[in-house]
Amino acid sequence: MKPKRISKEEYYLGIAREVSRRSTCWRRSIGALIVRDDQIISTGYVGAPRKTKDSFQHGVCLRDKLNIPHGQRYELCRSVHAEQNAIINAARAGVSLLGGDMYIFGSDYRTKKPINAFPCFICKKMIINAGLNRVICSTADGKFKIFKVEDWVKEWQKEDIIDDKHQYG
Predict the structure, then answer these.
(1) Which contacts of 121-129 are long-range, i.e. CB under 8 A and separated by 24 or more positions?
(2) Each residue of 114-144: pLDDT tens digit?
(3) CA dist list (Å): 140 to 4, 115, 116, 135
(4) CB 3.0 to 4.6 Å from 134: which of 44, 72, 101, 109, for a disulfide?
């Protein structure tokens, strides 16, 4: 009997899950991984900008303190999103993302339960401009959903950004 081998999606999402364990957000643990030509080229997790205090060091989530609901007012968050950090880390290393895929794993920080780790609008715009092909996201049911970036572009050409079917938060 031949042993069952996990898919590439499961493999890379498992690595993104480990990356998410570095997150410093009271609300969500998110990890992102960028893969091109079957090689990991960048990772990122939710965390404060380099050399600044994160929410754990402050002892409070600023957005919780201000009663800001999930999915709103990201500019008032201390953290940089995992997707943004993965893109930034590739840029710092001088690595092209063109044609790559992004894997995103997310869970609720408090309950550890998986969430639909779909990127927010800001991250979607960055992913489009970075030239990535696909985004593979963990889902609340423990599975994953694959998005083609070109489909986001086509949808936004026909409809407006607010009509997006898979919104975070």
Answers:
(1) 121/161, 121/164, 121/167, 121/168, 122/74, 122/81, 122/84, 123/81, 123/83, 123/84, 124/152, 124/164, 126/83, 126/84, 126/87, 127/83, 127/87, 127/102, 128/152, 128/153
(2) 999 999 888 999 999 999 999 999 999 999 9
(3) 24, 4, 5, 16
(4) 101
Determine the residue type at 46: V
* Bigger pLDDT: 163 vs 142: 142
Residue showing tokens 């997790």: 45
State the Cα–Cα distance between residues 41 and 12, nearest whole angstrom: 12
Q: d(Cα 101, Cα 1) in Å, to the nearest integer?
A: 33
Assess contact for 148 and 65: CB atoms under 8 A: no
What gap in Å lies between CA 137 and CA 164, rounded to an integer?
16
At residue 118, what is the residue type?
A: F
Q: Is pLDDT of 163 > 70?
A: no
pTM of the model: 0.91
Helix (H) or strand (E) holding 17: helix 8-20
